[in-house]
Amino acid sequence: MTRAPDTASSPTERMFAADEASRALGIELVEHGTGTAVLRMTVTPAMVNGHGIAHGGYVFLLADSAFACACNSHGPVTVAAAADIDFVAPAHQGDVLVANATERTRFGRSGIYDVRVERGDQVIAEFRGRSRSISSARTKESP
Predict the structure, then answer these.
(1) Distance, CA of 45 to CA of 61 (rounded, Å)
(2) Which of 66, 47, 51, 44 is nearest to 118 (CA)?
(3) Alpha-carbon distances of 104 from 4, 20, 24, 28, 61, rounded to whole Å
(4) How far is it, in rounded angstroms, from Cα 90 to Cα 25?
(5) Is 16 strand, coil or helix?
(6) What is the percent of the chain with per-residue pLDDT over 70, rounded to a whole number?
């Protein structure tokens, strides 16, 4: 897969344009603002587990991507310090899931964000992420 050209203007758009993992799964950045983001994903056959429902890892990934977009909206490179999720209802192949991320608070280099994943008006999962700003420039760890 080729990398999308860096024509985005906001920190969120630039980060999402470089997010190969999310974009490869068909996740779309629907809207964003300071401390907020809305992402959408359709559950594909490859995302369904042995029980015939969406694998929790994909639901977590959608929520985590929305969290990343919201917490990186301020500009400095920000990563997850911790996150947890409560699965409320199953999702199925063909379901369109929407993740709404909202900043709850920022303090120093840290922040707390809530993400609700829904199918229509049914809650699928509730996610809480804790962020940490690490720098103003992207760095790559050496092996």
Answers:
(1) 16
(2) 66
(3) 31, 27, 29, 23, 20
(4) 19
(5) helix
(6) 89
Please tell me whether the overall predicted TM-score, pTM, comes out greater than 0.85 for this model.
yes
DSSP 110: E
Task: Name the residue type at position 71.
Answer: C
pLDDT tens column, 10-45: 999 999 999 999 999 999 999 999 999 999 999 999
pLDDT in tens, 89-112: 999 999 999 999 999 999 999 999
The pairs formed by 13-16 with CB atoms below 8 angstroms and a separation of 24 or more are 15/68, 15/69, 15/72, 16/65, 16/69
| Strands 96-107, 77-87: pairing kind | unpaired
C-alpha to C-alpha distance for 106 and 36, rounded to whole angstroms: 13
HSE-CB for 34 with a 13 A CA cutoff: 3
